[in-house]
Model the fold of this input.
Amino acid sequence: MTKLLLPFLLLFFTLDGVGQITFNKRISFSHGAILSDIKQTNDDGFAIVGNKYSQTSSGIILIKTDEIGDTSWIQNYFIPGFYSTASDFEVLEDGYLIAGTRRTTINNYNSYDCFLIRTDTLGQVIWSKIYTNASLSQDEVSLIKTNDNGFIIKGSVLNLTNNSKNIKIIKTDSLGNLEWDKTYEALENGGNNSKVIQIDSNYFICTHKSLIKTNAAGEIEWIKDYDLPYGCATCNWINKFYFSSISKVDDGLLIGGGYYVDDENRNSLVLKTDFEGNIVWEKSYNMNANDGVIFINPANDGFVLGLYNNAGSNWSSRSFIKIDFNGECQFSGGIVTSHDSENCEMIQTSDNGYAYVNLETDFDIDPSYICNFWKINSNGRSNCKSTFNLNSDTITVIGFVGGQFDVIPNTFSQSAINVEMFCEGGIVETFCFNDNNSNHSSVLNETVCDSSYTLNGQVYNQSGTYNQVIQNYFGYDSTITLNLTINNPTTSALNETTCNSYSLNNQTYTQSGTYIQTMQNANGCDSTITLNLTIININPAITNNSNILTAQQTGASYQWIDCDLDALIPGATNQSFTPTYVGEYAVQITIGNCNETSACVMVNNVSLEENQLENGFEIFPNPFTSEAKIVFNVPQTNIKIQLLDVLGKELQSVSFSGTEFTIYRESLSASMYFVQITDASGKVATRKIVLE
Done:
């Protein structure tokens, strides 16, 4: 493994008010690096792919971090050729797949091959492929894993007829072997960096102004061209509006792009379509900068839109929008830096927060490219503090505040701002700065898990809507509407008595004690459960001491069992039991609502069972219903025959001579009995009989 020291600078790491990790990292190499994509891994850490530059070439980097953004390892990959770029990657079950391009120059014309690099979980190369017939016209491609475990690479190729960009699709199997490739002519400069979407066996491809549906072999089923009423009629741009990103929803597709307001500025545009390309709804967003949607990534309750946002050489803000499934903005945010800044990628994380990478560019310094790696919470907030000196008035912005964004035109003088930050690159609140003669208003939506919330020194102890009027940065009134929800943590206690073990919220306990569980309640706050648990464990062991059976468990109720007959022994309810005949015995032990039955124990040395008669006898039938016969092998003289119950009580006694004796049911009830025979010499034999 090739490793390179990466100066990750930990600028901030904390747990926020809803228990989510937030941090900011800065990533730079000696000659600069550009990060292009980020994914969360199965261990809740992150993988980041990008490009590292030297004075004469470039290489691919794959960075693995833990959940707080600290580096676990770095891998470097060099593709033969002058210039290579990684654009996209996938996290697989057993590793990573990186897609990118390699530049070649023929007759002063730049052409790009594309490549795949397959690695294991430590980033070590398993295989790599270069597709030399791609002839792409730009250095960015997108990658998806397909339903058949293969892959699709999408890029753009130059149409020499009209000097526009068409779409190039390369389909491979799971080992990167080429299966097919297709080129699609698109309406008005069709190339963009959006992913291909697979739904069942169909692919959906987004071009600049159309949507293409193909079958599994890439053959076109239909093309949907859109003529939307957006864009500047007098602008010089060919594409008054354009598409640049696509994502899948349960019942259709989400297509993102932008449209020109004038020759320099754009607004963001999102369409929701069904699976036939019919428009369900459309939304536009004015974010007061050079905007356009460059990526759409899914979130649990909506989508994250990444914007192409370049508001000036010393200011870049509000680089993303979080929308719900109906396209309504929930919050927006961005990066404040002292250099040019642009989005790279933003994803929702397993704790419902967001991970975000962006690029700063300043060609007056070396390295010229510096990347920020942010982790923000589910409300779009980071706890990193930044200070801005604005016309000699210092303000402090803490992270990002969610809520509807303000669309007041951003017309303040850029030269009036001197950015000084505790941590370079702070995510800013949704305040809009301008220097015209007007007052301002903003909306702050806050949900906290605490007994109070403080804003500008004012403490609020109850949920509600509150207004504050303060003087803003230019001396005008600024009205803040605070929509506050205070959710309190909850506590509860459980007193449980159970047998052997107890399970609560997938946690199993096997010993008595007091246990604490903390989880999230319906309001998103801590719910603390105190479990007072009593576990009853019964010891089912039996000891045999000189034919006296004793249960080892004390302080319980007992019932002894004849295992041979699978029957309870009447009256045998003490901790100890002395059998009167050979057989197997067990005991049923009860404490409260818990009971255990021991294993059967063999008793084969009962003195009463010793056949001391010189000649044997048989009893049949056994069991019997009306009568049973005792048949001796030889005639008997003056022997004593007794019938005993299970406790040894004599029920009948006769003196008998002969070879056959009959036992009648008469008044006997169904049970187990013993026949005890004593001959004239005092020898005793005992047999068990059962009356049904």
Notes: The chain has no helices and 57 strands. The CA atoms of residues 125 and 372 lie 27 Å apart.
